């Protein structure tokens, strides 16, 4: 089995935890950065040697929360252990617009980063405040300008259906985002995850989730407006200019394997899926003691791998080509999920022309409800 050609590094640091966030992060503990980098170097050494990759992604948390010397060490570690497999490696770093400076953007570019993924979420100051974000619309515009000057591709994340948000306000957010001329846009409806402060506030009546019809209108409006601006809708939540798709995420959606390191990081190699401890402190203690930081491990059967590949493939707007899928997985779509596919096609949620199966516009709106029946 060929070695993975993608890699992910997780940086857990944030200035503070936003009310909707349930990621593996630690807030207000920048003092742990040195220990984290030492432990990351140890975990990476267990790879045994450099692993050439086509895509490299550093996420969080907030990687750019690190001070410049620490950020430089992180980038050096990443480059050492995951050198480019070819001339066109995609290297993405996630960033909070409030943490970036021209100097840090320049540092990213000098180390070979090609793509900046900005957690913008909104260009409306009041909405940013409701989402408990700590940057301003002016920060976003400043950072985008700096990234362009450094030759980096710019990806923007947006959240819709924030508390109290109207359709008109969301449309202004989209217009302001398009004025930045991003290469890539991801749009996510706000979710209330158990364990977050937003979850507690919603259940106590302090926050009200927007009604389904309004959320539906916001999502469909994003599709139409971003498509009209030349951004191809290529995955349920993702839009890109030609040749500016996230190649790293596409590797996930196509069922490819990948390396990963850091607290909470998930890897997939040789048919085995492993996830590190989400607690930064547990991950640190285990790696420092020379013990495995893995909290969960699962060896997928060939059928399980095929089912995952089917679901991930259907998240892409081009869908699943039956012949290509069978050649790659060893299973046919009909053998795995024929009844469900036929039922969803009859309900207008999937389009099935006999060669390719894909989500319809109506199916996009309820896609998360379809996957359990396919898995």
Q: What is the residue-averaged pLDDT?
A: 95
What is the number of helical segments per DSSP (H or I, 4+ residues)?
A: 15
Label the structural class: alpha/beta
Shape: globular
- Please give the radius of gyration in angstroms: 21 Å
Between the first and last Cα atoms, what is the distance in angstroms? 24 Å
Tell how many strands the DSSP assignment holds: 17
Unreliable runs: none
- Major sheet: order of its strands? 9-10-8-7-6-5-4-1-11
Strand content range: 15-25%
- Let me know the largest β-sheet: 9 strands, mixed
Helix content: 40-55%
Structural write-up:
The chain is α/β, with parallel strands linked by helices and 375 residues long. The protein has 15 helices and 17 strands. The chain has helices at residues 33-45, 68-81, 102-110, 125-130, 137-149, 167-178, 197-203, 212-228, 247-253, 280-288, 302-315, 322-329, 333-346, 361-365, 367-374; strands at 6-11, 13-14, 26-27, 55-60, 90-95, 115-121, 153-160, 184-189, 232-235, 238-240, 259-261, 266-269, 272-276, 294-299, 320-321, 350-352, 356-359. The strands form 4 sheets. The protein has a 9-stranded mixed sheet with strand order 9-10-8-7-6-5-4-1-11, with helices on both faces. It has a 3-stranded antiparallel sheet with strand order 12-13-14, with no helix packed on it. Strand 16 and strand 17 (356-359) form a beta hairpin. The mean pLDDT is 95.
């Amino acid at each position: 089995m060929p070695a993975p050609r993608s890699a992910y590094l997780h940086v857990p640091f944030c200035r503070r935890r936003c009310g909707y966030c349930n990621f593996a992060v630690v807030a207000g503990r920048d003092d742990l950065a040195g220990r984290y980098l030492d432990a990351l170097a140890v975990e990476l050494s267990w790879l045994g040697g450099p692993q050439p990759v086509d895509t490299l992604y550093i996420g969080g948390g907030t990687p750019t929360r690190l001070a410049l010397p620490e950020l430089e060490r992180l980038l050096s570690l990443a480059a050492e252990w995951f050198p480019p497999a070819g001339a066109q490696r995609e290297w993405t770093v996630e960033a909070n617009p409030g943490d970036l400076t021209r100097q840090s953007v320049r540092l990213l570019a000098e180390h070979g980063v090609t793509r900046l993924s900005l957690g913008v979420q909104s260009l409306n100051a009041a909405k940013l405040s409701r989402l408990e974000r700590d940057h301003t619309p002016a920060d976003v515009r400043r950072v985008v300008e700096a990234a362009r000057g450094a030759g980096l591709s710019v990806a923007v994340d947006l959240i819709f259906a924030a508390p109290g948000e109207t359709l008109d306000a969301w449309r202004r957010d989209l217009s302001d985002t398009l004025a930045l001329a991003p290469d890539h846009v991801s749009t996510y409806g706000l979710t209330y995850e158990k364990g977050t402060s937003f979850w507690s506030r919603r259940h106590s009546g302090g926050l009200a989730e927007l009604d389904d019809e309004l959320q539906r209108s916001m999502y469909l409006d994003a599709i139409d407006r971003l498509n009209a601006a030349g951004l191809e809708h290529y995955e349920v939540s993702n839009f890109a200019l030609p040749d500016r798709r996230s190649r790293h995420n596409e590797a996930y959606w196509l069922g490819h394997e990948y390396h990963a390191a850091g607290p909470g990081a998930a890897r997939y190699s040789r048919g085995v899926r492993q996830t590190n401890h989400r607690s930064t402190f547990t991950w640190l203690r285990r790696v420092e003691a020379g013990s495995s930081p893995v909290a969960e491990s699962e060896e997928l059967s060939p059928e399980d791998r095929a089912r995952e590949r089917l679901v991930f493939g259907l998240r892409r707007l081009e869908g699943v080509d039956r012949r290509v899928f069978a050649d790659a997985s060893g299973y046919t779509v009909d053998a795995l999920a024929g009844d469900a596919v036929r039922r969803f096609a009859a309900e207008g949620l999937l389009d099935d022309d006999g060669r390719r199966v894909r989500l319809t516009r109506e199916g996009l709106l309820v896609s998360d409800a379809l996957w359990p029946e396919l898995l």
